[in-house]
Amino acid sequence: MNRETARKRAEALVAQMTMEEAASQLSFQAPAIERLGVPAYNWWNEALHGVARAGMATMFPQAIGMAATFDPALVEELGDVAATEGRAKYNAASRHGDRDIYKGLTFWSPNINIFRDPRWGRGQETFGEDPTLTGEIGGAYVRGLQGNGETMKAAACAKHFAVHSGPEDVRHSFNALASKKDMTETYLAAFEKLVKDAKVEAVMGAYNRTNGEPCCASNELMGYLHDWGFEGHFVSDCWAIADFHDGHHITDNPVDSAALAINAGCDLNCGCTYEKLVAAVMAGKVDEKKIRESAVRLFTTRYMLGIMGEGSEYDKIPYTVVECEAHQRKADEAALKGCVLLKNNGMLPLNENEIKTLGVIGPNADAIAPLVGNYHGSSSRYITLQRGLQDALAGKARVLCAEGCHLYKDKMTNLAQYEDDRLSEALTVAENSDAVVLVVGLDETLEGEQGDTSNPYGSADKRNLLLPASQRRLMNAVLKVGKPTVICLMAGSAIDLQEAGELADAVLLAWYPGAQGGKAVADLLLGRVSPSGKLPVTFYYNAQLDEMPAFTDYSMQGRTYRYFTGKPLYPFGFGLTYGDAAVTGAELKKGKDGLVLHVTVRNQGARDTEDVVQVYCQNEGSENAPVNPRLCAFQRVFVPAGAEKQVNIPVDEQSFLVVNEGGERVKEGRVALYAAMGQPDARTEELTGHRAVKLFVEE
Question: Could you tell me if 347 and 476 lie in one domain?
Fold first, then answer.
């Protein structure tokens, strides 16, 4: 059902409601209105990387790992998988009269906040630090979730609007200050793209204030949505409206908070503050028309989803599609394409025909938590890295295993007399192995959302970029054994491995690769597939945190690859393969639909591989351009060993504009383009041995 028809039906329905009935529909737990045939509906559902918190579902890599694929087409398919399984679960639950939380079709995903500071615990939920990549990957996920049929398959939600990326422990009272330039250039860019291009159905406000106004009642932020032509509904983050009086202290009580939010344009309250809406009307603080208009927007969405009794083409999706083989193959593909090879001195790929004994060591080797990240569903089968390697090498090699240490505690057994009580076993395994896979990292208890999971370090944000001391001691001790060793890092953010990273023969970043991600990681380690993921964030040295702005400083100066002036540990956009692909030529031409960059890629290596051609833009002579060239286009390409490929990449001329201090996009300076398999910076050139091809855009 198109929006126009859906809105007319919503208007007719809401006109029959009493004011109290209409107000009741503006809370996330909307009750049934039996006299009008309106079923109960719970708006709260999650699908960050597959349907979450609702029982069984196919689980993709965490969002940061999806971004590392640099593959919007694949991410759109993942969105469709989530929507399909969401429909299947909704159909089944509804038949049983179950309309509880996490059972609906309004998914509060994706999270498109910019991962501006590597300490932020929720950065793993995002698509990284770059507005262009975030907009492309986020838009693809929205299109996959919402579909292109006559009925909306599921309703996506862009969150958290806006200027939200930590610290977690002050989010309910914090005021994020951002200049007009940073707002347009960084914090709003992906939201604008999802509204204008992907037609996202919902936008969720953040907990914090932005430039003095609470995000769920911000005239400034709501004004942007209006200017962009947003037609969907606006939802508060959960209990964020209560923060108006409890945390921000900009109102005195729940009645005033409810009035402030709905008058600004917040349609739906995740929380209970809108229970005071009727009182706000009676006190003359809210016009009844505001309540009815919000109700109309919400029922427009429900009609577009085809869940108001009229039915849709999705009603026959059976429950049996949940975790089906085809969906798991897509999750596997995402894990294969998202893992990032950070270092390789030639140890990888492991030769499964030569290795007789492989040691698999580390607290994340056989753990489920680091497979799934946060905001995850459940799986009927988990494949850890240890199990993936055991399965892959069954009948070929012995796999010796040791946990080695606790994830963060000094000892595994409380009764142990000394710390590192599992270290001797790890050393013994290493001594008896031909090669070692050292599996370390974090999980959602060490980085995540404040209050969402218990966190031994306090607020869910990281204090630094180091692994816990127990893991650092384990890595250094095992590496001193002297066996060929690859570190497999499972985390959702930048980590500095320090001495261990220098001593290891190889480093593979697996992120949180999904419920069965261990199979994909094993295939990569054994060379059955070449790694091809790219970093969607900068990996800094831990010491560089002292040089960065304060965590609470939302100015972009000195942050992310666009404004960072130091030498990174691993740059944004970096990732090795088992091949050796490089851009050898590029030519910009005018096509019928705009500019197209014709790129020549040659794989000088001995292995077939996929890789990602990245195009960066810089406005030379501009005072308003970011310090470093910025990503403006990218495309995956498969290049056989020794072969050459031609890749045609559309380039949006809008990306040539820069943002001035007034927040306006302007034409300025001479535009240079760079094409490579990473950034056109000295560190990428040092790590890859290839220099980007540069050309100018002629007027």
Answer: yes
Mean pLDDT, to the nearest integer, of 72-77?
98
Kindly state whether residue 575 falls inside one of the protein's structural domains: no
570 within domain boundaries = no
Whole-number Å distance between alpha carbons of 363 and 350: 22
Q: How many domains does the chain have?
A: 3
Distance of CA 674 to the CA centre of its chain: 26
- The fraction of the chain above a pLDDT of 90, given in percent, is 97
Q: How far apart are CA 492 and CA 123, in angstroms?
A: 7
Write down the pTM of the prediction.
Answer: 0.98
> Above 50 in pLDDT, residue 382?
yes
Cα 412 to its chain centre, rounded Å, is 32
Give the side-chain half-sphere CA count within 13 A for 102: 15
* Greatest pairwise CA separation for the chain in angstroms: 80
- Whether the predicted pLDDT of 452 surpasses 80: no
> Are residues 438 and 555 located together in one domain of the fold?
yes
Which residue, of 281, 297, 318, is where some domain finishes?
A: 318
Q: Is 237 a catalytic residue?
A: yes
- First vs last C-alpha separation in the chain: 45
Q: What is the pLDDT of residues 165-195, one digit of tens each?
A: 999 999 999 999 999 999 999 999 999 999 9
- 80, 117, 237, 461: the active-site residue: 237
For CA atoms 22, 106, 145, 538, give the dihedral sign.
Answer: positive
Do 223 and 270 have their domain in common?
Answer: yes
Q: Which sign, positive or negative, has the C-alpha torsion 634, 635, 639, 645?
A: negative
Which backbone phi and psi does 431 adopt, to 5 degrees? Answer: -65, -30
Asked if residue 571 is part of any domain, the answer here is no
Q: Is the pLDDT of residue 647 over 70?
A: yes
For the segment 219-225, the average pLDDT, to the nearest whole number, is 98
Phi/psi at 18 (nearest 5 deg)? -70, 165
The CATH code of the domain that includes 95 is 3.20.20.300
Which domain covers residue 507, as residue numbers? 330-563
Residue 345 phi, psi (nearest 5): -90, 15
Task: For residue 314, give both structure tokens.
Answer: 């999705």
